[in-house]
Amino acid sequence: MEETGATAAPAEPAAGPMLQLENVCKRFGDLEVLRGVSVDVNRGEVVCVIGPSGSGKSTLLRCVNLLEPPEEGRILLEGKEITGKEAVEGINFVRRRVGMVFQQFNLFPHKSALENVCIAQEKVLDRSGAEARQKAEALLARVGMADKIGEYPDRLSGGQQQRVAIARALAMDPRVMLFDEVTSALDPELVKEVLDVMRELVDEGMTMIVVTHEMGFAREVARRVVFMDEGLVVEEGPPAEVLGNPQQERTKRFLGLVLEH
Questions:
Q1: Helix axes 129-142, 113-124, angle to 10 degrees
Q2: In 3D, which of 152, 51, 161, 48 has the Cα closest to residue 104?
Q3: Using CB atoms within 10 A of its CB, is residue 52 exposed (0-12), middle (13-18) or buried (19+)?
């Protein structure tokens, strides 16, 4: 879905890598999903990952937060290795620093919006109920859900559920946010409300990796665009270059199909 309108360029990120992926490989049985992916993400940088279905984009995100630990390669978060037998820090280090929002909202259906945002704060961060509630209320207000805190997921629209999911991830005070096609399950009229919340995070300097099919959004907010295909990084660079003047034939073919719609 293309978007129009002039927008100020994203602010320059602070220097220094927040996240480093070095030759990351991931297999599922005989299927090699990631084949030696290397990407650095600087502090405050927004990297949008694009590519066809099955190219390894979502698996890349799941490796970053260790939902799918890679078989080969290294991942460093804030300079500390989080993968392999030599990992410097454990899973809790990652969970406290990396937030992820999925294509499917993954809210607890038997808990209200407020309870969904509170639960991980209490169980992982050991916040008191009162402290977690205060944080949850503030974040739900921030994403435009102050009037829905007592509602259960089945009473919320897809866009509203996704905004609760973003608030839930932010409640953990992450250093990095991962977004996996978070608008693809939404009706078109609900996409903007979710992208607007993400734009606010960009403006605040959040480090983000965004897997997306929203080319207009990528052009607007990304410092860098990474095009993946068949488990490899085919091309990467500033949005104006990758989206406006791609150098690789595979990138050109993909964008020719996507930008026609």
A1: 130
A2: 161
A3: middle
The predicted-structure confidence for 74-88, as pLDDT tens digits, reads as follows 999 999 999 977 676
Measure Cα distances from 69 to 27, 34, 94 in Å: 10, 12, 12
Beta strand 17-28 pairing with 72-77 = antiparallel
What is the tens place of the pLDDT at every residue in 207-242?
Answer: 999 999 999 999 999 999 999 999 999 999 999 999
The full length of the chain comes to 261
Residue type, 211: V
β-bridge partners, 81: 76
Amino acid at 10: P
Retrieve residue 73's tokens.
Answer: 């390669």
Indicate the DSSP class of residue 66: T
pLDDT of residue 259: 77
Residue pair 46/198 in contact by the 8 Å Cβ criterion: no
H-helix or E-strand spanning residue 18: strand 17-28
What's the pLDDT score for residue 85?
74
CA pair distance 229, 143, nearest whole angstrom = 33
Six-digit token string for 72: 């080969």
Q: What is the tens place of the pLDDT at every residue in 3-43?
A: 444 444 555 554 568 999 999 999 999 999 999 999 999 99
